[in-house]
Amino acid sequence: MNALQEKYAKEIEAILAKYPAEHKRSAVMPLLYIAQRAGGYVTKQDMSEIAEILEITPTEVASIVGFYTLYHDKPEGKIRIQVCNDLPCALRGADKFLEQLCENVGIQVGETTEDGLVSIEAVMCLAGCDKAPMFQVQDENGISYHENQTVESAVELIESYRKQEKES
Ligand code: FES
Questions:
Q1: 129 lines ligand 1 (CB under 6 A)
Q2: 73 in a domain, yes or no?
Q3: In angstroms, rounded to a whole number, what is the distance separating the alpha carbons of residues 47 and 99?
Q4: Residues 56, 83 within the same domain
Q5: What pLDDT, on a 0 to 100 scale, did the predictor assign at position 52?
Q6: I want to staple 147 with a disulfide (CB 3.0 to 4.6 A). Which of 13, 71, 78, 134 is the partner?
């Protein structure tokens, strides 16, 4: 038995029970959710354990982690800002927005601020194409969407997270 199965045996069993044995690979999303909830991100070890449980390859699991913006394969900031710079958003200035926002907080795209609070990354379409520049924020409260942004409004939002963090 592997670490995830040991720790979350009941939860995993309940998830697997929802799928017919021949479709148990469909449980990959909820299992990734458990792994990420446990460690803040999905490790290589988690991916191979999930692959073993679902009888698929670790590469298949890794490709799902890579595809969905919800999952992370490395430690991230507590607040993850995911800016869409897919083509329709790029045409509305998303690339420049992303670059200037990162410059403002002193990081490169894909990096985390020194205090570990904020990560900023580029992602594919978030279904808010006509409201770019836009991004989603993932934090401990879930996901929130921020549309028609300016660098100033985004920096203001980051400052409000910093303030909350200091007060907590
Ligand atoms: S292309 Fe950016 S939200 Fe659709």
A1: yes
A2: no
A3: 32
A4: no
A5: 95
A6: 134
Would you place residue 70 in the very low, low, confident or very high pLDDT band (cuts 50, 70, 90)? confident
Average pLDDT of the residues of the chain: 94
CA of 136 to the centre of ligand 1 (A): 11
State the DSSP string of 55-90: TS-HHHHHHHHHH-TT--SS---SEEEEEE-SHHHH
Q: Which of 136, 105, 106, 140 is nearest to 122 (CA)?
A: 136
Say whether both 38 and 118 belong to one domain. no
156 in the same domain as 85:
yes
Q: How many CB atoms are located within 10 Å of the residue 15 CB?
A: 19
Judge if the beta carbon of residue 88 lies within 6 A of ligand 1.
yes
pTM (two decimals): 0.75
pLDDT on residue 84 = 97
CATH number at residue 142: 3.40.30.10
Count of domains in the chain?
2
